[in-house]
Amino acid sequence: MTVAVVDVTPGIVPANEQVFETECQVISNSPVNNDYRLLVLAAPAEILNCTPGQFFHLQCPVREGLQPYLRRPMSIYGYFPEKGELQFLYKIAGTGTAALATLAPGEPLNVVGPLGQGFDIRDDWQNLLLLARGVGLATLAPLALEAHKRGKTLTAICSARSPEMLMSIDYFRDLGANIITVTDSEETSGLENLEKLIEGLIATNGIDAFYTCGSNRLLKLLQTLGARHNISGQIALEQQMACGLGMCQCCVRSFQSPTGIVHKRVCKEGPVFDLQEAMGW
Amino acid sequence: MTVAVVDVTPGIVPANEQVFETECQVISNSPVNNDYRLLVLAAPAEILNCTPGQFFHLQCPVREGLQPYLRRPMSIYGYFPEKGELQFLYKIAGTGTAALATLAPGEPLNVVGPLGQGFDIRDDWQNLLLLARGVGLATLAPLALEAHKRGKTLTAICSARSPEMLMSIDYFRDLGANIITVTDSEETSGLENLEKLIEGLIATNGIDAFYTCGSNRLLKLLQTLGARHNISGQIALEQQMACGLGMCQCCVRSFQSPTGIVHKRVCKEGPVFDLQEAMGW
Amino acid sequence: MVDLSVQIGDLRLKNPIMPASGTFSEDLATMLDINTLGALVTKTITHGIRQGNPTPRVCEVAGSMLNSIGIPSKGVDYFRNVTVPYYQAYDSPLVVSISGNTTDEFAQLCEAVSVPGVAAIEVNISCPNIEEDGKAFAMRPSSTLDVMRKLRAATDLPLWAKLTPNTGETSDVARAAQEGGADALVVCNTMLAMSIDVQSRKPRLGNLMGGLSGPSLKPIALRMAYQCAKAVDIPVIGCGGISTTEDVLEYLIAGASAVQVGTATFINPTAMIRIIAELEAYMVAYNFSKMTDIINSVRDEEAADTVVFMETAP
Amino acid sequence: MVDLSVQIGDLRLKNPIMPASGTFSEDLATMLDINTLGALVTKTITHGIRQGNPTPRVCEVAGSMLNSIGIPSKGVDYFRNVTVPYYQAYDSPLVVSISGNTTDEFAQLCEAVSVPGVAAIEVNISCPNIEEDGKAFAMRPSSTLDVMRKLRAATDLPLWAKLTPNTGETSDVARAAQEGGADALVVCNTMLAMSIDVQSRKPRLGNLMGGLSGPSLKPIALRMAYQCAKAVDIPVIGCGGISTTEDVLEYLIAGASAVQVGTATFINPTAMIRIIAELEAYMVAYNFSKMTDIINSVRDEEAADTVVFMETAP
Ligand SMILES: Cc1cc2nc3c(=O)[nH]c(=O)nc-3n(C[C@H](O)[C@H](O)[C@H](O)COP(=O)(O)OP(=O)(O)OC[C@H]3O[C@@H](n4cnc5c(N)ncnc54)[C@H](O)[C@@H]3O)c2cc1C
Ligand SMILES: Cc1cc2nc3c(=O)[nH]c(=O)nc-3n(C[C@H](O)[C@H](O)[C@H](O)COP(=O)(O)OP(=O)(O)OC[C@H]3O[C@@H](n4cnc5c(N)ncnc54)[C@H](O)[C@@H]3O)c2cc1C
Ligand SMILES: Cc1cc2nc3c(=O)[nH]c(=O)nc-3n(C[C@H](O)[C@H](O)[C@H](O)COP(=O)(O)O)c2cc1C
Ligand SMILES: Cc1cc2nc3c(=O)[nH]c(=O)nc-3n(C[C@H](O)[C@H](O)[C@H](O)COP(=O)(O)O)c2cc1C
Ligand code: FES
Ligand code: FES
To answer: Are residues C52 and A252, on separate chains, in Cβ contact within 8 Å?
Structure first.
């Protein structure tokens, strides 16, 4: 397998010509359920010129016994220029997110962003399918809002370990989305069931685009269905990051391209990529 | 000048056969004046078996932008086994003490001690003279209390930049000490005036022992007066420390000894040394 | 009036602050006016196209990071056709970092990048030399001298030699680089290090080992910069663990004429412009008018020469 | 039942945790029962009486420290007459660290400390060798081989060779130490570093430079321990920046058979006993019965050999 280098020219238009390093103030930071927390920041309007799917790079605070060094990338869960709010939905995974969880209202948080390429909603796409699990919902939430604003028809399949772990269902419902929940505990989240479900949706209303993130399993499923029915799709991916700005080249992943396998930077060409170009891991 | 090595045998009796690493709780931590703060800790009785002049080695907290690594040595300002309290009087000098100043009541502080050799009050010494400036008062305060308990006659010369900066005067007064204050702003703290003052005290009441700490200037003065009138004395010294326990040998200072100049560890053979053996710096 | 400019051989930089190779690209222009920087240093490029190392390429260690990016490179043609024209818009001098697997390949590339628009060439001789069992050129004085001579012959542009902290012969390597024709030394690259994930028992980097950069590297790199400044007459450019203005001053006082900021930009992308502003404020506050008032002002007179050149710590 | 004991050559240690030379003395007995430690390692001693370096001998750097204690020593007679008898009260084996300025002086001392009560001799070959311009013996394979052969001839006790991270030839030096007769390697000593006080412009250490120890050193020392474990067949004792049980596990997984804890004891004097307890708890929790279940269990199979022996980071 030959791996070529990034074939990205500096000529590429960055999603944002200007990125900001800003000290925001914590408005609230509280648990959503056992696993996830919602962080709400007061942020200046200039940094809220975001696209769904973009992320910020957060300088998590330093605490006794928790001393993160690098920034941590975090998808934008919500951005509201009108009220000057920026939101993140996160799960405690290690040092950085544990430190993040200690932030109290009124404390500062230094953020860099908005970063990366967000989701694309083409004008000729009407019926959108969102498929997400866990923290993936954080990434897809602003996409749902944007789709709603643009008058798209939205179906969201939300997957979780158990019904109590399902998040943001009300959020999606308020946006008029057709919600389908699947869970491990109810044994509805398996690939076979999902495939049947989605095939059903395609057959009844038709679907113009898939949106998903994170999971290798879901990627494969949607790639198969997309290829089978010629449906476009996008996926948001993760990778270890240092700079978040495209400079260090540590966050590359491999992608299919007409010329072979290429490396692209998740922070710069991504985190949102074409579904069919993405490769499993 | 030949410098020999520490001539201390492991046979030396440590002031405390047992030293403790203990997590104490902050009771209060507030400014005494513009420069100094008083830290009061709730401490178990076992670590309060102290001698005046000993010190603790404090693990200052880690804060955003203040990340001390080594411990910081701090003289015991007060130890009260009856009420389970341990006190320190300190000045913000850099990272560690700045971090210390952020401690709020209820927070933990890890301390190691009591450490080192304290002051000696010989039974045949009756009239004691304490000469201290600035944070030196912190070191001499418990000595004054102990001397008072033992029925000694105490004179304390307290030196400071200006009258407002004088500290612990009431503390010394309550112990029945004869207080003499000298300040730079009143131009009473000069060596010449001090010498006159002390010569006066020697002439009137007589003095059996000098106690001082820190300053090179005061050391020289008391060495001269001590030699002139054959008065014993002790001085508490400072030096950069790593272990605080006598293991690393980083805290040595040079001392006069019958066999020439020797190195002694401030943390172990000190911090209190014989006045005449101490060398200026 | 405060003058922040510094002289590096024939090149005058408007201030002593520049990015370190591999931690900067045109992408930083989204965050700040890169024209305020003393120079613009590219990621190391190789002659041909290279892919770099397997992922994960980065991991965090106590207060610092490791990387094993390797040298993904789009090759020399891309550099000449795209990168050089891009930087024409800026007047801060463009410094291209290059590397090669063999002396000849290295020299060829050196010649190939000697084009208008390039102000200086930083030669990353801290990279493995396949002619010497993969040992970096800058590990030994002999291989350093050898490659520097060939590189010197290949270009008329200023040559900055970037040294490695992995050698036990810092002063000798520095002198060899000078003898071989370097116009300045960049001191230094990352230190070989490792981290293992205790849960999975796997090395945290796809490449097993990688380079330590950030605050942990500073005392080591500062020591090297100091040793090099004592050992050679050409300017030393300090690099390693700089994140504050105090860090910059430490390097300048130790003898460096300029500095490169690497990892700190990942933590605070605007770090370099903040440092430039603070450096100016510092000079005003302390009544310095020019950088040479600070450079090499270390008060080490009390110490013996033998100590200065010691190569081990007891 | 969990068995924490480890084998270092002919010596069986009750657990793999012991203090690092220079960071331990009988004074620690005021804080904990030193008999719970795997071994007791003395500060390096020299044959004659020495004073050590000028003060300040220690300073703090980001998350770590530098020291330039030097080797203040009360000499070999004091060691034999006072130190050895003192440690008779403990059954943890006594390891004496020694050093010499010349090969012969070193060998003489090695013989002189080979007395009953001493279980092993740690030879600090990271100290300057005055016959080689002050370069430490362990900087080069040749001087390492040379001194180890003489030391080997001078004693029948187990010989542990303590290596320096300041060399660029780690694997070769490790092999030379083994060839010269070492029974184990201690990897590693401090890394030469420097810090300058920006206000006074003076080096923060009286000796100008000193050794970096503590968390910043860990990724470097761990890499060396891993390289050495690959390079030799004798046991490796990891040392550098260990402060948690996870750090210990990282070294053991990388191939170390035991570890030494240094600077961490300054921060938490009771660190070693806490680590021993946590290590036992870890083994119970993960169902390990003996230390060899952990030692050298690194999952590096995917990586090429060339990578393992690389001596530089690009
Ligand atoms: C573009 C992007 C968007 C993301 N959005 C979200 C989100 O909305 N909510 C959320 O909970 N998480 C999100 N993640 C994952 C999140 O960044 C990691 O959970 C977090 O970095 C873990 O840091 P830690 O210190 O808590 O964990 P540790 O395991 O201690 O982290 C160690 C190192 O690994 C890196 N790392 C660990 N996990 C990941 C990961 N999955 N992706 C990238 N780097 C990782 C960390 O950044 C850090 O440098 C996102 C990741 C990316 C790349
Ligand atoms: C036995 C002893 C008793 C002391 N008692 C008191 C006291 O009661 N009240 C008080 O305010 N101060 C006291 N000091 C001084 C106090 O330890 C220092 O002010 C403190 O360590 C400064 O730390 P920092 O991080 O704030 O300053 P920084 O300057 O940032 O410290 C940097 C390093 O230098 C060391 N250092 C700096 N100043 C001193 C010093 N004077 N002595 C030893 N090490 C130093 C620090 O411990 C630290 O390792 C005492 C010192 C000793 C040795
Ligand atoms: C992600 C990353 C990539 C790097 N790539 C290169 C490189 O291509 N060429 C080079 O000479 N140095 C490279 N370096 C080393 C830096 O230029 C610098 O020498 C080193 O990081 C020390 O400086 P710092 O501590 O300020 O980061 C890289 C460093 C990092 C962190
Ligand atoms: C204060 C101090 C004194 C030291 N003295 C010696 C010594 O005499 N001999 C020696 O071989 N190593 C000496 N070392 C090095 C330690 O044994 C150890 O190799 C090093 O500190 C790395 O381990 P650490 O990071 O756990 O401290 C000393 C280290 C320190 C911090
Ligand atoms: S994180 Fe640096 S290029 Fe993506
Ligand atoms: S501080 Fe370690 S011996 Fe005194």
So the answer is: yes
Residue C268: C-alpha distances to residues A111, A112, C33, C165, D237 (Å) = 9, 8, 15, 25, 38
Ligand 1 atom with least separation from CA of A236 = 1
Placement of tokens 């300088």 in the chain = A59
Q: Report, in this order, helix, strand and coil percent for chain C, each rounded to 5.
A: 35, 20, 45
Alpha helices in B12-114 (DSSP H): 95-100
For residue B127, what are the β-bridge partners?
B153
Tell me how far apart the alpha carbons of residues D8 and D6 are, in angstroms, rounded to a whole number.
Answer: 7
Could you read off the pLDDT of A154-208 as tens digits, one per residue?
999 999 888 888 888 888 888 889 999 999 999 999 999 999 999 999 999 899 9
Cβ–Cβ under 8 Å, residues C20 and C239: yes
Please tell me the predicted confidence (pLDDT) of residue B167: 80
**CA B72 to ligand 2 center in whole angstroms:** 6
Helices A191-204 and A216-229, interaxial angle, to 10°? Answer: 30
Whether this model's ipTM surpasses 0.90 comes out as yes
Give phi and psi for D194, each to the nearest 5.
Answer: -155, 155
Pick the CATH number of D6-312 from 3.40.50.1000, 3.20.20.70, 1.10.10.10, 3.40.30.10: 3.20.20.70
Q: Is C156 helix (H, G, I), strand (E, B) or coil?
A: coil
Q: Would you say C121 and C158 are in contact if contact means Cβ atoms under 8 Å apart?
A: yes
Nearest to residue A67, comparing CAs of A96, A26, A106? A96
Residues with CB under 6 A from ligand 2: B 55, 68, 70, 72-75, 88-91, 93-97, 135, 138-139, 238-241, 266, 271; D 60
Beta bridge partner(s), residue C122: C97, C160
Q: How many CB atoms lie within 10 A of CB A40?
A: 20
Give one word for A216, left, alpha or beta, with left for phi > 0 and alpha for psi -120 to 50.
alpha
Mean pLDDT for chain D overall = 94
pLDDT in tens, B42-93: 999 999 999 999 999 999 999 988 999 999 999 999 999 999 999 999 999 9
Domain ranges (residues) in chain A: 20-115, 127-274
Has domain B127-274 been given CATH number 3.40.50.80?
yes
In whole angstroms, what is the distance from residue C278 CA to residue C268 CA?
15
D170-194 burial, b at 16+ Cβ within 10 Å, e below that, comes to bbbbbbbbbebbbbbbbbbbbbbbb
pLDDT digits (tens, 9 = 90+) for D59-96: 999 999 999 999 999 999 999 999 999 999 999 999 99
- The one-letter amino acid code at B150 reads R
CA distance A188 to A181: 8
D49 is in an annotated binding site: no
Cβ atoms of A26 and A103 within 8 Å: the answer is yes
- Positions of E strands within chain C: 6-8, 11-13, 17-19, 40-41, 58-61, 64-67, 94-98, 120-124, 159-162, 184-187, 191-194, 209-213, 236-239, 258-261
Q: How far is CA D257 from CA D244, D247, D285, in A?
A: 17, 13, 21
**pLDDT greater than 70 at residue B116:** yes
**Ligand 5 centroid from CA A244, angstroms:** 4
Domain ranges of chain C: 6-312
Fold of B20-115: Elongation Factor Tu (Ef-tu); domain 3 (2.40.30)
- Are B133 and B159 in contact by the 8 Å Cβ rule? The answer is yes
Residue C139 and residue C127: Cα distance in Å, rounded? 9
- φ, ψ at D45 (rounded to 5°): -115, 155
What's the burial of B123, exposed, middle or buried (CB within 10 Å: 0-12/13-18/19+)?
exposed
Name the residue among D22, D26, D51 with its Cβ closest to that of B10.
Answer: D26
Instruction: Note whether D176 and D144 are within 8 A (CB).
Output: yes
H-assigned helices in A129-190: 136-149, 169-174
